[in-house]
């Protein structure tokens, strides 16, 4: 406001951003915006890493009238959509190796963890897309989920070979350091570690840490004041907190255990556990450098290359660690060794290109975890957002990065130049290809022809499961009940269109009840009882042709919708309407008087059926979730 800028209203900005497409998969408009921001990057800022992770969502399907598509189902963007409710969002983000810039670039919806085969295609697409806009992807970072491990196995990523070539560029792959620290702690809780040395083997036990905590908490002046029950007696959610693991593997806990051993409060073998804690703390400090100068020497990035030889020492240390109760090497040890080797080889390559320090904290997934936290905080701290909420939050957070996109660690003040740059970025995003051309690029999993769709039992069966509704359809009176609802909905749709258009021709489709016009028993009962005054100008009965039409559409709606979705595309209403318009009964009805309003009435009826089916599916999902929770409660009793 100090600049005297005439800014648009908040509602106006909301309408602008609402028109900007942000769908699962790669978004070339988004990448074009990043490419424009790159114009002010220096050469070192072009080196980046790509990271990906999944976050939970609420299973909830919605019909989006604005985009004419279903949201909340499995959607892998260019690799197709599947008619199953999604409960996970896979997000990709890029950030500078030694710079503070970061951008989310794509997201996908899946049912559970994304399969390794699909994940491989998506990761390759994202890496090549980032390379195509001029950035140099030097590193890939992910956690140690079983799908990521399957991806690394497919690419033969090992500590001896931690890289892969994409577009003639070498990309190293590692695991997220904070996740590895949590895995070390979680395995230590359940197993005894054995550290082999030249003279003897040391045993590391979680019971040693628990015993130290119980003795330390009895006195007022504690040696490790930050330790609490949350650190030692972990609940399910506590196991996900990195802070609780990092504070256990700290110099304070090491010093406390070592002191009690010297004072003979604890036995001598507790010192082996203390030495292990100190080693993990030292390794975590080296992999968590965030500034050139730090009070703790191990976290000074200015001396990174002077201490790079320690990466080999740390590698040898984990070579000496084993778990006797396991028949093979634990996954987290392989992940730690891969991370140490990957960072070492990356550091050597960057040193040859002129780097003299590396902020190793940037080589983690912290930026992505912060993104998830911001996405949940939108809309009243929603820890379990729906697919639609997540998509809109992703769009909001991306445009927030356009307002403030720092480079080289320097922060731009709000100036006329930076504001103008933001406006240009917005204009470039809005001026690129329109939504229809973007939709045409989206592929689907199954795209059979019209002839094949009739016999495509697998596709129809999966779609029928998606569109299955209440058990009332299985009862004997289900057809009569559906017929009553169809007649009522059809009359309501005609009434709505005639009220908006004041078309006298369309009013002839309705027949008002009089004493001479009495419907046959069992027909129009719902319309009868819905009316407050039977002889007022309210709901009415349908003429013969309209009655036959709406009952036909209602009876074939599920099958026609399945065929439209199996044939490909995301435009749900348009696809269903096009297929109905090819039916002889519908063709004849549309050729009668006032065809434009008739098409609107049919479209209104189909949209109402869409909302009804989506609601029924969500009710089924909630019921299944309730049954699952009941079974879990019974098992826990």
From TrEMBL:
Q: Residue ranges of the Transposable element P transposase-like RNase H C-terminal domain?
A: 365-393
Task: Name all Transposable element P transposase-like RNase H domain ranges.
Answer: 24-153
Q: Which domain of life is it from?
A: Eukaryota
Q: Where is the Transposable element P transposase-like GTP-binding insertion domain?
A: 179-296
Q: Name one Pfam family in it.
A: TNP-like_RNaseH_N
InterPro entries given for it? TNP-like_GBD, TNP-like_RNaseH_C, TNP-like_RNaseH_N
What protein name is recorded for this chain? Transposable element P transposase
This protein's species is Orchesella dallaii
